[in-house]
Amino acid sequence: MTSFHPENFSILIVDDVVDNLEVISIMLTEQGYYTLKAPSGQQALVEARNALPDLILLDLMMPDMNGLEACRILKADAQTADIPIIFVTASDERDHLLQAFELGAVDYITKPFDCFELLVRIKTHLELKQVRDELKQALAVVEKLAATDELTGVANRRYLLEIATKEFERAKRYGRSLAIVMLDIDHFKLVNDNYGHQVGDRVLQQMAAVAAETLRKGDTLGRIGGEEFIALLPETAPSEAEEVAERLRQKIANLAIAISPEHNLQITVSLGLSVHLAGDVTIDAIITRADAALYVAKAQGRNQVVS
Ligand code: GH3
Ligand code: MG
Ligand code: MG
Ligand code: MG
């Protein structure tokens, strides 16, 4: 776990009594925390959304909007939902305590509070938040790795098929167009045989990079086999998809891959294009047609698009 540095944390203090705001703010600032202050429930919502503090100390009884209501709104907003909230209140009603925890508060401290106890609790909740944030980041990295083809950095087969299935369901439900382009490098075995596997790997990397940058933002490029890729094109009509496929073919054909100071290598790809048709029950139907079209492109002499 990363060590704890108060100066890395901002704490939003919410209290309708300005003196309370000041006293708590001075106490926290002395510890090194960065503080923000809100004198009302409404202000608290604005500050929380703007500053996304690491923790909120929330008064319960306030005239404009009570703390429980503010807590409910903060927890309902995805942006602020994960900010830990500690109630700091003069109310010792059991019902308030119960509601606060039910709404998702992490702690409940009654006024007048013991400064030392408040600081210890704040530190504990910030440490817990730090661990949660680190876990979230680690999970995002793992998810990214699990979806990525190690050699080329584009989507791997599993992730491409997962996205393709989702896009297919969406296209089917809303009657949208969806196209698939299957690419396969021509005579790639010769590249490996003539220049070695390492050069072959570099060809795959550069080809994938060029193909990826040729596609639009909503498109997904995935490596589904050794030298076989799929470009998934949502919301793309047949004529547009043909243009995309042709652009991919040209860009890849024009790619000069430096294999020595005086020698560049060029490659071509064959492409099979298919689009979502009314009768398709699964994404496999579209992929099978793209594969068949690719086979025809190979048979007709390679370096071409077949629909
Ligand atoms: P075609 O034009 O008919 O597609 O011919 P091809 O030689 O490209 O097709 P074939 O399927 O016979 O050969 C594919 C080659 O791709 C064989 C394999 O060694 C190579 N290959 C597959 N994965 C990798 C990889 O990760 N790195 C490298 N360097 N080569 C790979
Ligand atoms: Mg109050
Ligand atoms: Mg090939
Ligand atoms: Mg192949």
UniProtKB/TrEMBL annotation:
Keyword Cell cycle: no
Documented EC number(s): 2.7.7.65
4-aspartylphosphate modification, residue list: D59
The organism's place on the tree of life at top rank: Bacteria
Domain Response regulatory: 10-126
A single MF term (Gene Ontology): diguanylate cyclase activity
A Pfam family matched in the record: Response_reg
Sequence ranges assigned to domain GGDEF in this UniProt record: 176-307
Gene3D superfamilies, per database record: 3.30.70.270, 3.40.50.2300
Keyword terms, alphabetized: Nucleotidyltransferase, Phosphoprotein, Transferase
Name of the protein: Diguanylate cyclase
Organism: Almyronema epifaneia S1
